[in-house]
């Protein structure tokens, strides 16, 4: 591991995935090929001396390998700051022969999951009264990011006027000399993801920024006065992969470095959600220890929404972030030959002139009538009739570079997701196509396709209507100008976010680009957490999370309804945005907070069936689970979720006053459909001696059959604050069967 600094930036280089890179780009001996990275997790530290802990790790490994020399050669990392454990290269036989508990890092990989957004959230740099200026822009706070690295020369990371760096380090290294994957054996960013997320979280203002004139304005981070600490855990392998061994070391080092907040735009690659607590990974374990040390951990919820049960990073100690759009879009009208007009989304730059044809790849009856492509932002197309009005999903993915049916034409492509969209556009471009019309899930239509290639995006419904028009018209034409724990916790801007990119990610020498996804929403929340940490340095991670969740906007900041984009589009609910869209200025003064600590999270693990021995691995404390039945409903979350209500159930919460000393709050309840909710007491009184009050909530169902989830809220109101908790309830009636005998 090596590190470096550049003014206000700290960079950490973590290298276990280099083993995987090397296996893919260079030859290895048979003995090396049999060794893979395994992790031994030993829970809380038993000593405060890091060197003593590392010596203990080597002693344990020596008992397995037979010599100290073999132990030194095998060990990759010693986790010795925030918790105890190590990563080592072992054969399967060596791992199985050990008496230790191992989990294999080699196969447990995570994927990387970006300015107007800050003004949209009420943090304009021109206002003198908002949270941004009330905290001196986060000065003195350290934001750590676990990502793909950073490009420190970018103007957005200028440290002018920031004083000395808070940590020491070393300079960036040289490129990793590979032919297949451009990468650096240093914290320098070859992927672009980390540079973009870092600029969102804490980048300095860069005026007159844009992507070829689009999104023109000032690019900056949420806490431009904060320091950034980049822990490089992701490598340029098939788009960016991150191993558990690196992730655990990053958490361990960040705890030692004393960061204030960690932004983690990562998630498991292609695995089932809601299994993280049962099968712990590096993010779950590392975040637990970070939060125990008072570090807020902000993680991406993943990009699988709006489908059900697609949320990642669901542990209650994590602040899990969904992505919302902002009041920026690039609408592109599509006018058909019958004068019917649809709106798509496009980021068309430059001029496109000449004639073009529109084709539907994978159709055996393609025709090639000509269509006029007039200068952006206008495009006219003469579309051939297709023999059927229904579409084939991912039809353009079968396009080959030698596909003459696409060359010189614009392709109509139906895609099933973001990656398929990018592949479809790439394939059409490689086949010398002139552009694409992408029909996809409407939740993705804000995202860009690929750079420097005309791409207009519509949802499936619009695509199907266009296809129906094509099939019913002889010479159609078109013209378009240029689980019991609610997750996610909150939504932040994540669509078409302008941020910095490294030279390896540059297109025509622009320093900025638009990215979309929860990876971009996560550093927005991390930047806001940094500001809140600066304003309230003694608040716990749970208190900060509560302040953010209970003050979120449940309508757009302009008062418009929030929709979850899918097919069909629906009004958003807590499963889409948690507490709502983050409202940083209200979060600075929430009135009341739902606070928690390590003991509360241990109780949560008890409710999941962890025994005392397993919990001891986390804490190294003799805190046992309570006897009898434990209820997860009593976890002091700023939300209430009841996944299986039969008749009636009760739960408790406690709130701590962080507002005026003498305060009185009254309950305001919006009950879900068919559900009755009562709160006792319904009035909370605080004074100089009473700072925390406990209340009970009784929830009853009048339904006689099983139902889906319905939603409501409980708000505590004092005339100034409205401390709102989202409520989600599902009625599940147990079926009874008569005895026929």
From TrEMBL:
Keywords, in A-Z order: Hydrolase, Protease, Serine protease, Signal
Residue span(s) of domain Peptidase S8/S53: 138-552
Domain Inhibitor I9 intervals: 37-96
Gene3D superfamilies listed in its UniProt record: 2.60.40.2310, 3.50.30.30, Peptidase S8 propeptide/proteinase inhibitor I9, Peptidase S8/S53 domain
GO-annotated biological processes: proteolysis
CDD domains in UniProt: PA_subtilisin_like, Peptidases_S8_3
Secretion signal, residue range per the UniProt entry: 1-27
Active site, renumbered: 147, 193, 519
GO MF term (any one): serine-type endopeptidase activity
Domain Subtilisin-like protease fibronectin type-III: 634-729
PROSITE patterns the record matches: SUBTILASE, SUBTILASE_SER
Protein family per UniProt: Belongs to the peptidase S8 family.
Protein name in the entry: Subtilisin-like protease SBT3.8
Organism per entry: Vitis vinifera (Grape)
């Amino acid at each position: 591991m090596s590190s470096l600094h550049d003014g206000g930036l700290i960079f950490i280089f973590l290298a276990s995935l280099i083993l995987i890179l090397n296996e893919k780009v260079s030859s290895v001996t048979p003995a090396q090929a049999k060794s893979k990275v395994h992790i031994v997790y030993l829970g809380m530290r038993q000593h405060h001396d890091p060197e003593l802990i590392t010596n203990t790790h080597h002693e344990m490994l020596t008992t397995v390998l037979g010599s100290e020399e073999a132990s030194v050669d095998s060990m990759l990392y010693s986790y010795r700051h925030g918790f105890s454990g190590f990563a080592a290269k072992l054969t399967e036989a060596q791992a199985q022969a050990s008496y230790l508990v191992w989990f294999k890092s080699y196969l447990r990989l995570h994927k990387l999951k970006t300015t107007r957004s800050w003004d949209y959230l009420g943090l304009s740099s021109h206002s003198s009264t908002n949270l941004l200026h009330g905290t001196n822009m986060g000065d003195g706070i350290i934001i750590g990011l676990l990502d793909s690295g950073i490009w420190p020369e970018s103007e957005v990371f200028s440290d002018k006027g920031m004083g000395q760096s808070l940590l020491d380090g070393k300079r960036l290294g040289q490129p990793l000399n590979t032919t297949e994957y451009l990468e650096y054996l240093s914290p320098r960013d070859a992927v672009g993801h980390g540079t973009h997320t870092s600029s969102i979280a804490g980048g300095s203002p860069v005026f007159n920024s844009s992507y070829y004139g689009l999104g023109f304005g000032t690019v900056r981070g949420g806490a431009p006065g904060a320091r950034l600490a980049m822990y490089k855990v992701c490598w340029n392998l098939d788009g960016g992969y991150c191993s558990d061994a690196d992730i655990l070391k990053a958490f361990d080092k960040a705890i030692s470095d004393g960061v204030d907040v960690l932004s983690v735009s990562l998630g498991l690659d292609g695995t089932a959600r809601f299994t993280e607590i049962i099968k712990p990974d590096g993010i779950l374990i590392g975040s637990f220890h970070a939060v125990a040390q008072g570090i807020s951990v902000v993680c991406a919820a993943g990009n699988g929404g709006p489908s059900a049960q697609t949320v990642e990073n669901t542990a209650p100690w994590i602040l899990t972030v969904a992505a919302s759009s902002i009041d920026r879009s690039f609408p592109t009208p599509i006018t058909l030959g019958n004068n019917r007009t649809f709106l798509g989304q496009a980021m068309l730059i430059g001029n496109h002139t000449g004639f073009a044809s529109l084709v539907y790849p994978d159709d055996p009856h393609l025709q090639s009538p000509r269509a006029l492509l007039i200068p952006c932002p206008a495009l006219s197309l003469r579309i051939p009739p297709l023999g059927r009005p229904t579409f084939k999903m991912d039809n353009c993915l079968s396009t080959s570079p030698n596909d003459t049916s696409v060359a010189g034409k614009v392709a109509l492509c139906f895609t099933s997701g973001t990656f398929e969209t990018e592949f479809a556009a790439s394939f059409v471009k490689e086949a010398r196509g002139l552009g694409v019309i992408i029909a996809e899930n409407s939740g993705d239509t804000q995202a860009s396709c690929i750079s420097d290639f005309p791409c207009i995006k519509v949802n499936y419904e619009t695509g199907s209507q266009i296809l129906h028009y094509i099939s019913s018209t002889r010479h159609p034409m078109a013209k378009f100008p240029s689980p019991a724990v609610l997750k996610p916790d909150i939504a932040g801007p994540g669509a078409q976010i302008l941020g910095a990119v490294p030279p390896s990610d540059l297109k025509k020498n622009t320093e900025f680009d638009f990215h979309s996804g929860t990876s971009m929403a996560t550093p927005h929340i991390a930047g806001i957490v940094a500001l809140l940490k600066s304003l309230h340095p003694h608040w716990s991670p749970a208190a900060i999370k509560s302040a953010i969740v209970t003050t979120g906007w449940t309508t757009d900041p302009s008062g418009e309804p929030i929709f979850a984009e899918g097919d069909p589009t629906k009004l958003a609910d807590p499963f889409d945005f948690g507490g709502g869209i983050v409202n940083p200025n209200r979060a600075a003064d929430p009135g009341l907070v739902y606070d928690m600590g390590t003991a509360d999270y241990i109780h949560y693990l008890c409710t999941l069936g962890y025994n005392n021995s397993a919990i001891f691995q986390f804490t190294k404390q003799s805190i046992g689970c309570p006897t009898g039945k434990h209820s997860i409903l009593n976890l002091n979350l700023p939300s209430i979720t009841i996944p299986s209500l039969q008749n009636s159930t009760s739960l408790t919460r406690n709130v701590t006053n962080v507002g005026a000393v003498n305060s009185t709050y009254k309950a305001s309840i919006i009950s879900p459909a068919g559900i009755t909710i009562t709160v006792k007491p319904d009035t909370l009184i605080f004074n100089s001696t009473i700072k925390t009050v406990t209340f009970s909530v009784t929830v009853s169902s009048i339904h006689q059959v099983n139902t889906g989830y319905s939603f409501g809220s409980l708000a505590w109101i004092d005339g100034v604050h409205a401390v709102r908790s989202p409520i989600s309830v599902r009625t599940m009636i147990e079926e009874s069967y008569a005895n026929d005998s």
